[in-house]
């Protein structure tokens, strides 16, 4: 049952309200990103990675990465790449608690016997996901760059074209930050 839920969530993983994708990056400042001109996309075989459990979404993510990297001027070369690109997806159930304040402005009465001031709290459950894109040097297989895009999983079912569009938005937001600006000075 849990695997079915995960696969269903993954299938709709990019059914996101994706107008802006929060992205974080980290990279090795000693890496010379100007030497990287070719790449290939690898598949993570980690049991915890959701892309390994859903080949449809994995193929869409890989297609999006290839399209974006080629648009940035990199050459897709599976035989002799400079970069190994590995996407991963993880999701986690979250709870958001917001104190909306008091329904009444204060307490009335004396001591501990006063009345009024009923508080309102909003509790919302949601599923948060991350798409991680790791870029490794193919020569020494060391991680040189990592980008992470955060999204919220919605329950809306999408067509394959809509799903690809949302994946393209997230991958695009992440890879817009590659290479890091400091490395190309």
Q: If classified by CATH, what would the architecture be?
A: 2-Layer Sandwich
The tally of helices reads: 3
Q: Any idea what the radius of gyration is?
A: 22 Å
Number of strands: 6
Biggest β-sheet description: 6 strands, mixed
End-to-end separation: 51 Å
Q: What's the helix-strand series?
A: HEEHEEEEH
What is the total number of structural domains?
1
Task: Report the CATH topology name.
Answer: Double Stranded RNA Binding Domain
Find the structural class using helix and strand composition.
Answer: alpha/beta
Q: Tell me, what's the shape? A: globular
- Helix content class: 10-25%
Mean pLDDT reading: 83
- The stretches of 5 or more residues where confidence is low (pLDDT under 50) are 4-18
CATH class: Alpha Beta
Major sheet strand order: 1-6-5-4-2-3
Helix and strand arrangement:
Elements: H1 2-11, E1 23-27, E2 38-41, H2 55-71, E3 75-76, E4 83-102, E5 119-137, E6 143-153, H3 160-175
Parallel strand pairs: 2-3, 2-4
Antiparallel strand pairs: 1-6, 4-5, 5-6
Helix pairs in contact: 2-3
Description:
- The protein is of the alpha/beta class and 185 residues long.
- The chain has one domain: Double Stranded RNA Binding Domain (2-Layer Sandwich).
- Helix content is 23%, strand content 33%.
- The protein contains three helices and six strands, in the order H-E-E-H-E-E-E-E-H.
- A six-stranded mixed β-sheet has the order 1-6-5-4-2-3.
- The longest helix has 17 residues.
- About 8% of the residues have low confidence.
